[in-house]
Amino acid sequence: MKAKRNFSWWSWIGDMSMERKLLLVFLIIIILPLSFISLISFKSYSESIEHNTVTYSEKLIDQMMDGIDDYIEDMKRISSMPAYVNDIKQNLIRSNRYYEDKARIDSGGNTSSLSPEDFDLLLTIQRGIEGNISFINNIKRGTNSVYIFDGKGNGYYSAKDGGVRLDLEQSYKFWSEQAKDSSGEALLFGTQAYTSNLQSTRYAFTVVRKIVDGLWNPIGLIAVEANISNLENQVAELDNVTHGTSLIVDESGKVVYDSNKKLLTTDISDGELFKKASGSSGSFYNTQEGKERLNIYSSSLKTNWKVIISIPVDELTRNVKVTRNVTLAATFIIIVLALIISMVLSFALTKPLKQMIQVMKKVQGGDLDVTFRFRRRDEIGLLGHQFNRMLARIRQLIQDIYWIEQQKKEAELQALQSQINPHFIYNTLESIRMTAELNDDVEAADMISILGRLLRYSTSDLSGRTTMNQELGYVRNYVELLNCRYPNRFLLQIDVPEELGKYAIIKLVFQPIIENAAYHGLDDSKPQMHLSIRCEVTDRLLRFHIRDDGCGMDSATLSLLNQHLQNETPPKRSINGGIGMKNVQQRIRLHYGAAYGIEVYSEPGEGTDVILSLPLREPEEIKNQEPEE
Question: What is its EC number (predicted)?
């Protein structure tokens, strides 16, 4: 049922008038490319916007992270300063010694109040350490607080804005626990919330480092703390450029900073956003609050902190939608104009096409002498010109085919003219052979037997085909008969692959070449003449090299011979009544085409090499039918 509907649909199109068909074709040719181009342009522009946004945002993130990395590196350098300030180290050692002695006295059960000397000592230690802390705190802009603890957890600090942690004891325990296995390197801790002595909640990230003496013995701890306000301006500038929101997380998934300050210190390691932002950098889409967003992320190689920018897709595609609407409007206008132009062109093309149809009908009726008359040199005129050339070519091909058939028949006729009644020859030779055997003349009987086989093969239908094995067998018999006439004068060597044994070939292509070599190339100064047939299999054809080591020929004779072989005149009968090389050349070209045939190469005294080219084709199974007696 479906096939029937399809047939009706195609029939309906086929029955349309020429004008409607041309109109339909013009519309399809115009609408499809325009629609395809519009779609590709829209998609390409969208991808370009996304790619440029991702690339530009990654650069902005990298610039911001470089600034944050530099700031944290400065904090780490500040945390290393106590190692170079002897006053801080000496006061920490004095503080440790004092509290160790006090702890020893208290453990012995002797508790005593703070003496004036002890008060003066502690005050001196505090002033010495906090004075240096104030100096350190003024080195770097934006540092919130610097805390230095002795080995017993007693803290000394200085804060620019006066905000000091109320949970300093708990913070020290956490910091010292995390730094106990370190060997003095700086440790970075992400954003933590704390309550200051001003009763306000604040957020800061911290760099902590052990303080060691000259013998690398730990004598205290320094914590350099920076308020997240140091990140606020950089993140705000990034959000203003990208029209999105930013999120900074540490390697464990804890939020260091976010644009809305709603997720500070929150652990989002199990969240979809953190899981998808795997790797050092990249981008991905997700849906938040019912809106699709493009997320771009990049990581710092120094801190392993990761910045994730989330941009609404609507912001990205705002300009893309404008481009899409403009493209659709332009496409619609072009289609309307194309419809009008198509109608005019289809009408203009219909009339000459109808005239051409009438001429074609005459050609279909067998009238090849007609011509299509055209006035203009447009496409129809060019088509008419080519149609006239096609008719002329058809007429020429008919003449060529007729000529080729005539040449083929003439070549085969001349080959047959050298033959005599085969039955008479067979019966006469058989009678002579039997008489020779009765007279015990075995050599003569063998010669007559070989001659009979040669005549049986050569006088059969030359238009038929044989196999490579049979053709080469005929050559062997011919050389054997030559050696009977000229005892041991000719030595034949055949090197043809066995798989070509059943290769289909026309008759009498090798023997005339061997015969020509034996009668015209024989060098009387040499006791024996070497003849060889070697096959070279290439990707396109078979090249047979028929060589002899005879007297050869000079360049003038060789040039004349090759020119004679390339000439397309009908072959002449050889002087001796046999089938000459020209006949072989002509029959090969008639059967296989002008690309195949004979080429001759020779040098005086060096012999002659005749190259016979035949097409490379699959072997054909040919059943050899022996002629009847």
Answer: 2.7.13.3
